[in-house]
Amino acid sequence: MSENAKQLEQLLGRGYQHGFVTEIDSDTVPPGLDEDMVRLISHKKQEPAFLTEWRLKALRHWLTMKEPHWAHLKVAPIDYQSISYYSAPRSKKDGPKSLAEVDPKLLETYAKLGVPLHERARLAGVAVDAVFDSVSVATTFKERLAAAGVVFCPFSEAVRTHPQLIEQYLGSVVPYTDNFFATLNSAVFTDGSFVYVPKGVRCPMELSTYFRINALNTGQFERTLIIADVGSYVSYLEGCSAPQRDENQLHAAVVELVALEDAYIKYSTVQNWYPGDADGRGGIYNFVTKRGDCRGRNSHISWTQVETGSAITWKYPSCVLRGEGSIGEFYSVATVNNHQQADTGTKMIHIGRDTRSTIVSKGISAGHGQNTYRGLVKILPSAHGARNFTQCDSLLMGGQCGAHTFPYVEAKNPTATVEHEASTSKISDEQLFYCLSRGITAEDAVNMIVSGFCKSVFKELPMEFAVEAQNLLAVSLEGAVG
Amino acid sequence: MGARTAMLSIEDLQARVDGKPILNGLTLEVGAGEVHAIMGPNGSGKSTLAYVLAGRPGYEVTGGRVLFEGRDLITLAPEERARAGLFLGFQYPVEIPGVNNVYLLKAAVNAARKARGQPEVDAFEVLGLVREKMALMRMEDSFLSRGVNEGFSGGEKKRNEILQMLVLEPRLAILDETDSGLDIDALKVVAAGVNSQRSPERACVLVTHYQRLLEYVAPDFVHVLVRGRIAKSGDRSLALELERRGYDWVAGEAA
User: Fold this and answer.
1) Which residue would you say has higher pLDDT here, A479 or A206?
2) What's the pLDDT at A216?
């Protein structure tokens, strides 16, 4: 066998790289969901009464709802009563005062994931609020952010330190009645991130949170709330990976963004949860509700996502363009390989005058993967002069995968302009041979061609994230072209 | 052809495409420092020969032998042939949207360097090299920021092939109808590019339908391919005779 063929074989045999489980003493409640459980979670987190009540309202509403099945997905039945709704690392009990008090196993895990903590974090210029199974363990750069007046902390901490902001904004973008998974999240969410950027402040650094699912059978219900006050700017990075395991894990996060007048929120995600093995066993079920509200004049919200992981992805980061002249953007790369399924896209709801939205979706399908773009552009009668541009491109690798596009448009104002472009292409043998004939290996050639296809989305990512995204894409498509 | 050692030695080569025999016992030797022109009517197997030498999948070798600098070429993967110093200039170069021209060249240069055990070069070094060769090919700076052949005119694509050849400095270049579809100015530029890389260590095989290119790139040998075999070989004057008398003349002789 040639050296080259050997290398290729090694590459193909490389499994999910972040697949390890940290043995750690978890404080996990028994499975099951009822009002007592919701009260227990709220009590464990020492929450004020308004929040306990809000959770209970959500639970009562959830019990009247049915699991949605409109997406182009095959989902194995989920037994919501067999899920444990709370899990916290034990070492949290007394609250670590410094990194020295943090369970060394946790720090090891972060090291494996490359989370830049402590010195590494300062070098990288990134503040990290690391979520380890529901409870945030360490937060860096708090002082520097505090000097700028920026609040960046675990959600549960914000409940204690800024209850008035929580009460004012929680559920104001995604109400607890919104949809099955968001409602479930409202009842049982354990932690997440909270960001508040005051008036006129440009957040001095990229804010980054690494989420990681760890304890077996523990559903993850993060809740993130980002508020950008008048004239402020913040860029937020969310990166994910999870340890390898055999059972499907439910993940139902909610992210709410509020941009006031002239505020700009840039939210970037690289999602790399365990996608299941080559036969489709295991993997994360990722049912996420992400929505941003452009509340003032010239508010601006931009979503960029690179989705390479999860067995199932159900996710539609959306923008409500309320303020006059506000801007919503959605840039997405979604990759499916083996038996992965993704149904993802966006909703752009134009309410204000002269609102603008841009949608760029790049779907890559390989193996038996099924990739669906589902998007809604809704122009309300009040949205004079609204404009939307949508571009959906699909790239197919091999003959057993699928790409589907469902673009919905509801235009109720005749002065609005809506443009849609779509394409489907394959990595051709010709492109591949062209690269080979220049001495480039097949793997490198495929990565190069795929990166080229995704270029218009990658350029929206912060630099260090763009590199990570390309690497992830390369790993997730390994072996897709032989 | 005497005592010279052949860089490329093709012996009784047979190959088929989609089960159909195209090359039927082709024998050819190319020595270092030589330029050979392969001419012939449509369907005679010219492009097939180019693809077989470069290792294109689907072009099946059914007999014969090809040695490239002493190595059995047919057993090498296409990318290994490239790294060994073989270059194919495509008749119809494919577009690769979003992949930057310089990025592709950097990957190609470093793949070859790695194979030779040399350290990789960074983007700035590659850029310097590319700029130098671009001037020779009279290409505009905007080329640097464009995708590989993305939205290029036919002439631009052909210039890009020659540019890649100049940057990669192959031992043996096989140029498949690089002259087709070029206006006279572009043809002169392409010819200047090919001539600039002539040296005693390097060789070139020009696959062409017309002798027009040969007015600007003087070949040492001219071969006429008929039904997958070299039917006639000669010097430059053979090309002129073909221009005058047509291919039927050779085909008739070969039959």
Assistant:
1) A206
2) 39
Gap between the Cα atoms of A38 and A45, Å rounded: 11
**Residue A10: CB atoms within 10 Å:** 9
Substitution target in A3, A393, A432, A434 with the highest count of B β-carbons within 10 Å is: A434
Residue contact B54–A449, C-beta within 8 A: no
Which residues of chain A are within 8 Å of residue B94 when distances are taken between CB atoms?
A: 428, 430-431, 434
- ipTM field: 0.94
CA atoms in the 13 A half-sphere facing the CB of B19 = 0
Rounded to an integer, what distance in angstroms lies between the CA atom of residue B221 and that of residue B225?
Answer: 13
Cβ of B79 and A428 within 8 Å? Answer: no
What's the first-to-final CA gap in chain B, in angstroms? 25
The answer to whether residue B169 neighbours chain A at the CB level (below 8 Å) is: no
Q: Does residue B204 have a pLDDT over 60?
A: yes
What's the CA gap between B116 and A471, in Å, rounded?
A: 26
| pLDDT, tens digit, 9 for 90 and up, residues A55-79 | 999 999 999 998 888 878 787 788 8
Q: Which residue has the tokens 């990290």?
A: A128
Hey, is A158 helix, strand or coil?
A: helix
Nearest CA among A186, A192, A222 for reference residue A207: A192
**Paired tokens of B126:** 């590659």
Encoded amino acid at A1, one letter: M
Q: What is the largest CA-CA distance in chain A?
A: 68
In tens, the pLDDT along B49-62 reads: 999 999 999 999 99
Count of all residues that appear for chain B in the document: 255
Amino acid at A61: H
Flag whether pLDDT at B249 surpasses 90. Answer: no
Closest CA relative to residue A34, chosen from A50, A4, A55, A19: A55
Which positions in chain A touch B54 (Cβ < 8 Å)? 437
- Mutating which of B71, B79, B95 best tests the A interface, going by the most A Cβ atoms within 10 A? B79
Query: What three-state secondary structure class fits A229?
Result: coil
Place of tokens 């930057």: B100
Residues in chain A: 482
Instruction: Give Cβ neighbours of residue A284 (< 8 Å, ≥ 6 apart).
Output: A213, A242, A248, A249, A251, A273, A274, A275, A309, A310, A311, A312
Q: Find which of A435, A446, A449, A453 to mutate to test the B interface (most B CBs within 10 Å of its CB).
A: A435
Q: Are A325 and A355 in contact (CB under 8 A)?
A: yes
Amino acid at B105: L
